[in-house]
């Protein structure tokens, strides 16, 4: 019997909550603050999961210097939290999430999060949905190296008393899958987020779930394997 705890480590944006509209609106405000044309919605969705600074850098038009990043990031944060305070930063939970968390906990798994969100933003999202006490480890890109680095996954394992063989990363982007593989953990993709299933499989997902009802059994099977 392994002495390590079993850990289900979730991404947030695109996995727990559908935050694309809030992110796209805040990114548009950030670019507009610097007199730049906002990136397309699809371009923004492709960057979700990365730390905010890295995502902005990847969205800068050709010829725009990296010096614009700080201004865009600051304006993005201001816009996001202003929209949330005004009730227009919608981040609904994906259907079936709470039941899946219940099933994983009943099966003996600890729950954690590794996300490109800031810690402040993640806590606000979890508290809004009454999930603040469900996750024993919260890893964010402003407190650790962002995806696809293994840093957040390794920190989560250390806090949870888990190891790579007892950990499954659940996420919707190739960055989540790469983080899991870089940390030696199993990677489980979800099809309802922002990267296509083919991209998740190519990045190292062991399988892709199409509904939250599939997730608890898939996580258990990956740890057993």
Overview of this protein structure:
- The protein is of the alpha/beta class.
- It folds into two domains: 5-18 and 91-224, HAD superfamily/HAD-like (Rossmann fold); 20-85, Orthogonal Bundle (DNA polymerase, domain 1).
- 45% of the residues lie in helices and 16% in strands.
- The protein contains ten helices and six strands, in the order βαααααβαβαβαβαβα.
- Strands 3-2-1-4-5-6 form a six-stranded parallel β-sheet, with helices on both faces.
- Helix 6 (119-128) links the parallel strand 2 and strand 3.
- The longest helix has 17 residues, at 69-85.
List keywords for this structure.
Rossmann fold, HAD-like_hydrolase_sf, globular, 225 residues, 2 domains, single chain, six-stranded parallel beta sheet, DNA polymerase, domain 1, phosphoglycolate phosphatase activity, 10 helices, HAD-like_sf, HAD-SF_hydro_IA, alpha/beta, Haloacid dehalogenase
């Amino acid at each position: 019997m392994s002495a390590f705890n079993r850990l289900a480590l979730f991404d947030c944006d695109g996995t727990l909550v559908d935050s694309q509209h809030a992110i796209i609106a805040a990114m548009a405000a950030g670019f507009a603050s610097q007199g730049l044309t906002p990136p397309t919605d699809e371009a923004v969705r492709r960057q979700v999961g990365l730390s905010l600074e890295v995502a902005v850098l990847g969205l800068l038009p050709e010829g725009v210097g990296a010096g614009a990043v700080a201004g865009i990031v600051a304006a993005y944060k201001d816009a996001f939290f202003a929209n949330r305070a005004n009730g227009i930063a919608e981040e609904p939970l994906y259907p079936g999430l709470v039941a899946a968390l219940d099933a994983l906990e009943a099966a003996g798994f600890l729950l954690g999060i590794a996300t490109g969100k800031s810690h402040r933003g993640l806590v606000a999202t979890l508290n809004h949905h009454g999930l603040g006490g469900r996750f024993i480890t919260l890893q964010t890109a402003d407190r650790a190296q962002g995806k696809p680095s293994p840093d957040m996954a390794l920190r989560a394992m250390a806090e949870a008393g888990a190891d790579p063989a007892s950990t499954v990363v659940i996420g919707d982007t190739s960055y989540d899958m790469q983080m899991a593989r870089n940390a030696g953990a199993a990677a489980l993709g979800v099809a309802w987020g922002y990267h296509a299933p083919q991209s998740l499989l190519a990045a190292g997902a062991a399988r892709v779930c199409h509904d939250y009802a599939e997730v608890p059994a898939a996580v258990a099977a990956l740890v057993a394997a």
